[in-house]
Amino acid sequence: MKKIVTVVALILSVVLIFGGCNSGKKPVEPTHGGKGGSDIASQTSTEISTQKATHPLAGEKLIALTFDDGPRASTTNRVLDVLEKNASTATFFIVGYNIEKNVETIKRASEMGCEIANHSKDHKNLTKLTYSEIWEQVDFPNKKVKSLTGIEPKLFRAPGGNYDGVEGDIGMPIIQWSVDTEDWKYKDASNADRTPEQREADLKKIADRVINNAEKGDIVLMHDIYDFTADLCELVIPGLIEKGFKVVSVSEMYEAYGKELKGGVVYNCIKFNPAEENTKVVKAGQYRVKTNGGALNIREEADFDAKSVLKLANGTQVTVTKSVAGWAYVSYGESQGWVNSAYLEEIQ
């Protein structure tokens, strides 16, 4: 009997060991791009936020500004000044070799509600390193920040955006971006011959591009080690607020919109579909399903999380008997239920 128990225990041990070998590899969150309907059956649910308004900021138009490569006391504090003046927060991805000499700046950012995140120990290309070297690059900043400030970084950004194939080795949620300001191209050190007028024009050009193209759920990439970027913030942050945005940290934005950040997964932004914010009320009558080619769910209740009872193909004719904001109660054959009214076209 003892021999049998021993053999079973050995088998279970082997299964556990080898079963966990590939456990860290996670799919990459899609980048900012085409926005299909959130209630279309062919869509991937993780691409789209369907959060009910339970978080205080859930109904706000949120955007996350992120800053890499710091801190640098002189410029990071200028960025913090602008954030503070505009009742905003941001996420700072700090590099290990900058931590010890900038403890007070890190503490100030955290006390303001900003997020302190990890940008590696030495800013190396992680895809060129061994597992143990990657672990050192990730682990050192986390421990250093915790020991000196008590803050525990929860997010990671791969230097140079190089993470392919090592997502699981990194282990932390990997935050990329959907808006790249390319502010590093315009830093003063690289543009020594630029006139003050040209510098102002560059600042306005980048600020206008960010402000005019920003979307709810975007993650904006900047660098808090340049005077140019500190000046840029004086245009971008008030400009975004004037356009109706609330500037917050990455974690706060994801929490507000009900999106979980998981270790080993890459995130670029939060996608939103106009259909989710649809408030269209339709009259009773005959309608045709009009989608981007996917099937439309009939649900038991007027809720994205409600159970689907049937999928309607594009072009299917249905009868609407009643409607509430964003939803229509339809009948099709023997089936009845709620559909997103954004995908109904009235038959004249």
The helix/strand series, from N terminus to C terminus, equals HEHEHEHHEEHEHEHEEEEEEEE
The end-to-end distance, rounded to whole angstroms, is 79 Å
* Total E-strand runs: 15
Radius of gyration: 25 Å
CATH T-level fold name of the largest domain: TIM Barrel
Helical/strand content category: alpha/beta
Q: On the 0-100 scale, what is the average pLDDT? A: 85
Q: Biggest β-sheet, characterized?
A: 6 strands, parallel
CATH architectural category of the largest domain: Alpha-Beta Barrel
- Shape type: elongated
Tell me what portion of residues adopts beta-strand conformation. Answer: 15-25%
Low-pLDDT windows of residues: 1-38, 40-53
Helix content: 25-40%
Total helix count? 8
* CATH H-tier superfamily of the largest domain: Glycoside hydrolase/deacetylase
> Which CATH class of the largest domain?
Alpha Beta
How many structural domains? 2
